[in-house]
Amino acid sequence: MTATIDPAILEAIEAAPVPYDFFREVHKGLRNALFDLTVACGAADFDDPLTCDRIAARVHGLVSLFHSHHGHEDDFIKPLIQAADPRLDAIVDSGHAEIDSDLLEIEAMADGLVAASGPVAVAAGLDLYRRLALFTASYLAHMAFEEGAVMERLRTSLSTAELFEVDMALRGSIPLDKLLAFAAIMLPAMNTEERTAMLGGLRAGAPDEVFEQVRAVAVRCLEPQDYGTIADRLGLVG
């Protein structure tokens, strides 16, 4: 370890009712975004060019988050998996390669949707909806594998302090624009404890302007009562 970690933080993590998981909160956000986009695509009026543009933009935005997420995994988590269990590492790599291929196809379908009009666009929109639904099904299985077999192996190979240090390094590497984009899909999908920990950790360890921008995302994307609960717990004003 290269950083000093407050022992109280480690005690709280180890006393939590659920085991440490790199993936839990970001995967909640990705599930939320995938479900929401798929439902929106299924309900969209693709005879309207503006709707086609809007859905395509959402597809490209979400694909960008997937690539960022996988890049974070490759930079920070993959070396841990390689050292702990090369077999699991190979399975994760194979899954990421398949996902990258799927995402290329989905983006191409979204671009084709923008280029179409009338009945052709309506048919292309239905094809995109079905492809998103199929991708969602396969990606759910990939996330479950990482949260299950991969994290179980990492928890047996590394201490809580070692896991936490890597997790904090990963989070600290995320550029502000991506941090805000991830916050927008994660916060609505997280529970009260997770939201409080996320905002509390940012307030304690991030520059004030970063915290305030993430807090603004929370105000925008959460129900007022839900945000109020977090604000009360953290003693936030305004």
CATH superfamily of the largest domain: nmb1532 protein domain like
Order of helices and strands: HHHHHHHHHH
Helix content: over 70%
Biggest sheet features: none
**Contiguous helical run count:** 10
Uncertain spans: none
Beta-strand percentage range: under 5%
Shape: globular
Distance between the termini: 38 Å
CATH top level class name of the largest domain: Mainly Alpha
- Overall structural domain count: 2
Under CATH, the topology of the largest domain is which? Four Helix Bundle (Hemerythrin (Met), subunit A)
CATH architecture of the largest domain: Up-down Bundle
Strands, count: 0
Rg estimate, integer Å: 19 Å
Q: What integer is the average pLDDT?
A: 95
Keyword list:
238 residues, Four Helix Bundle (Hemerythrin (Met), subunit A), 2 domains, 10 helices, globular
Characterize the structure shown.
This protein is an all-alpha fold and about 240 residues long. It has 2 domains: about 20-175, Four Helix Bundle (Hemerythrin (Met), subunit A); about 190-238, no CATH class. Helices cover about 85% and strands about 0% of the residues. It contains 10 helices and no strands. The protein has helices spanning about 5-15, 25-45, 50-85, 85-115, 120-155, 160-170, 175-185, 190-205, 210-220, 225-235. Helix 7 (about 175-185) runs parallel beside helix 9. It is globular and about 60 Å long. It starts with 6 loop residues before the first helix and ends with a helix. The mean pLDDT is about 95.
